[in-house]
Design brief:
The structure is a homodimer of 438-residue chains. Chain A has helices at 40-51, 63-73, 88-102, 123-136, 179-187, 201-211, 217-222, 232-235, 258-263, 321-325; strands spanning 2-6, 30-31, 37-38, 56-62, 78-82, 110-115, 118-120, 142-147, 158-161, 167-174, 191-200, 243-248, 252-254, 269-270, 273-275, 280-286, 292-295, 298-305, 308-313, 333-336, 339-347, 350-357, 365-367, 372-379, 381-386, 389-394, 398-401, 407-411, 415-422, 432-434. Chain A is α+β, with helices and mostly antiparallel strands and 438 residues long. In chain A, the strands form 8 sheets. In chain A, strands 20-21-22-29-24-27 form a 6-stranded antiparallel beta sheet. In chain A, helix 3 (88-102) crosses helix 6. The two termini of chain A are 37 Å apart. In chain A, 41% of the residues are buried. At the A-B interface, strand 17, strand 18, strand 19, strand 21 and strand 22 of A face strand 17, strand 18, strand 19, strand 21 and strand 22 of B. Strand 17 of chain A pairs parallel with strand 19 (308-313) of chain B, so a sheet runs across the interface.
Chain lengths: 438, 438
């Protein structure tokens, strides 16, 4: 099975755990059987592997998420990198060309496209497999998944099938209706449109060439920023007359707000927190290493990270966006392909950062124009390269780097550094990257 | 006027703002007219100065608080340092000897003793002056302040005066009664005992010699740890038959819980916080430099510091103690006589701290047995002394110090350092102090 997972953009609805660089799908919030926590991306990836261990998974996403994906899934996940955000039609077109030109997938092969962040049970992925098998029967150009509605929601688009069979032709689509209309649709067998579909790769390639003027993957990639923002539903699905739908009646949750996300938590507390007996329906997610104490609260979510603190009535939490949009908060934590960093302190002309490199990984060879840096190695072993000179380092070693000097560090064992940055205009954009000879 | 301010011990009722080293009286929570915030200690000290600019103020407190007092009040406040905690009678005895032997106060002078943490208006300090003047009339051995009760509280001891005049002889004392009995006392003109009294210094010295076997201040100081824990009320006041009381009917609040403390806040928010319109009676005190967002909360206090996060129903907040007593949290922030420090990061064999030295101040000359240290100067100018060698330092300079090496730094301008500590057993107790020749 070929699967394209669409990994959406940054969002602040789950602030302070999601931010401009960390999308909600990377928050580790779901407890596995072994007690460890995993993110939505990790959960979905693990579920796919369980249903089909040979599935070829490609994640279509922006440049900003590539590091986090490799950090969380390792290097084996294929990533179709979008140079900028252009909605789902260009993203799916680019991923299709990536499959054809970079991964050499046959045009005749079925491809399943689905979002990366549904909270579902394993039977969802069995249904994806059914979609893939159904495509091979060539009974329709597109095969959608239709989610059996559990209530007359006003939040979703509806698929109206011809009949109530497990697999049916699609009659028409209805955009988000009011509650009463939704009830009528459901009584006629309508299904929620969860944005999941399958088709032959050729179909996607044909649609791409039909609507965009380009030659191959490299060309499409190069002109990606000139493409209009348009959804796949609007550009393709709504104009296609030959569509089937496969019903799915397993668990399906859209965990887009703190209210819905906390419903999916198996325990009331993640991280260091104490709730007194007077607390009712309280959920705490604490990413800091200092405790949270809650007393006498009801229907409240408390979320604490290096970016800030949210304390909200659970229902009210869905109105968070305008409040956090106003916050001008510097990024305090990020996962990179080589490890992670956390901002410890911000001064007018200085910043202190904790850098953790995973064993065998290295950051880019780079320099800064407007800041000096000092590395204090606090644990592990590694090799520092400064202006072409290599040096083995261990805990206690200090490396000072003037502005303009090229530097990198690679970790032999897990390596932790305290990085002190000093300069008048410290910015993440002040960075020149260089190739390494070896 | 001579005033002894009794500065009580550490407490966790206002966690995470109070902790083992920061007592509630040092939390900067009261907004002044100029918009700046001051602590209870600073507020009381300023109020005393306003009523009597020549008042001689001595703060009786433990060693642990001396740095915070000098940090908040400067060097002009006298401090009678208790070598260990021994309740109010030994503390007042030691402070009396401190006044006589160290400050050379005449035995005939009146002394007013009061707690450092009442939330009161300026008229309270006018009443202290009245107490001092009343002492000089020699109508009684002790002159107490009696606080006009506002409700039949079960929390306070009651003073039963002979009559309802502004100044009256005391008939008797009653320990914390039930509500009904309290009501009866009040109907008979009873007053709350706020632990405030005045007398001639000689009276205190006599009582000290009567109950403790010692020669002078130095001797009492030396044997302080052998003294029994006993309150001044129990040891002296309840056994004294010749007492007057002066009525005080101004504002008087005991700000011992988050509930009472937030009532004294003039604004709902201190620090970086956003409350949506659905919040009612919500108070936020945020000492971190990342935002707190509150939505749809009612009657809730949110308190955030480097030590942790409290989210509590205001009434429930008075039951906090057993919950925070269980927390084994390392001290994350402290004010010292020379400035302050804040723990930024804790690792198994390392700790990163931000040190801020005030201009003209210096930390102790000291060494550590079990840890190396690295100083990264991030702003300001100063002079580092390492094993007797002096070096001027500025932003960008790095000083590495092996375990055993003696070191200190003094600030020319405000000086900020990132201190990286490395070792297997990092402890605040691993510190040897040395005298400096100059």
């Amino acid at each position: 099975m070929n699967i394209i997972l669409l990994s959406g953009g940054s969002g602040k609805r789950l602030w302070p755990l999601s931010n401009d660089v960390r999308s909600k799908q990377f928050i580790k919030i779901f407890q596995k059987e072994d007690g460890e926590y995993e993110s939505m991306v990790q959960r979905v990836y693990r579920q796919i592997r369980r249903v089909d261990s040979s599935a070829v998974v490609t994640i279509a996403t922006s440049r900003a998420q590539v590091s986090a994906i490799h950090n969380q899934l390792g290097e084996e996940a294929f990533v179709s990198v979008e140079p900028c955000r252009r909605d789902t039609f260009p993203a799916i077109a680019l991923a299709s060309l990536y499959l054809k030109d970079v991964r050499n997938v046959e045009e005749n092969e079925p491809v399943v496209v689905c979002p990366v962040d549904p909270y579902v049970d394993d039977s969802y992925f069995d249904t994806l497999k059914e979609l893939s098998i159904q495509v091979e029967k060539d009974e329709a150009n597109l095969v959608l998944m239709g989610i059996e509605p559990t209530y007359p929601s006003e939040k979703y688009g509806y698929i109206i099938p011809v009949d109530r069979k497990k697999i049916s032709s699609v009659n028409t689509f209805k955009e988000k209706p009011d509650e009463k209309t939704a009830g009528e649709y459901i009584s006629r067998g309508a299904l929620w449109n969860g944005g999941v579909f399958a088709c032959r790769l050729r179909y996607l390639l044909d649609k791409a060439h039909e609507l965009i003027d380009f030659t191959d993957y490299a060309d499409l990639f190069a002109k990606y920023d000139t493409l209009p923002k348009i959804s796949f539903d609007y550009a393709v699905v709504e104009k296609e007359s030959d569509i089937q739908v496969v019903r799915y009646d397993g668990e399906w949750k859209d965990l887009g707000t703190w209210n819905t996300l906390t419903e999916a938590m198996t325990e009331p507390v993640i991280g260091d927190a104490v709730l007194n007996d007077a607390c009712e329906n309280v959920s705490v997610i604490n990413e800091l290493n200092v405790p949270v104490v809650c007393m006498g609260l009801k229907d409240v979510v408390v979320s604490v990270s290096a970016e800030g603190v949210l304390v909200s009535d659970k229902e009210q939490s869905s109105y968070i966006k305008p409040y956090v949009d106003k916050i001008e908060q510097q990024i305090m934590f990020a996962e990179k392909s080589w490890g992670s960093f956390r901002v410890l302190d911000v001064e007018e002309e200085g910043m202190t950062i904790k850098v953790t490199l995973n064993p065998g990984h290295r950051m880019n060879y780079h320099s800064h124009l407007r800041r000096d840096e000092i590395w204090n190695v606090i644990s592990g072993e590694g090799v520092v390269l400064v202006d072409g000179m290599e040096q083995n380092v261990k805990a206690g070693d200090v490396i000072t780097m003037q502005a303009g000097c090229r530097h990198t560090v690679s970790a032999v064992t897990e390596l932790k550094l305290i990085e002190v940055q000093l300069g008048k205009e410290i910015s993440v954009h002040d960075k020149q990257k260089f190739e390494l000879d070896n």
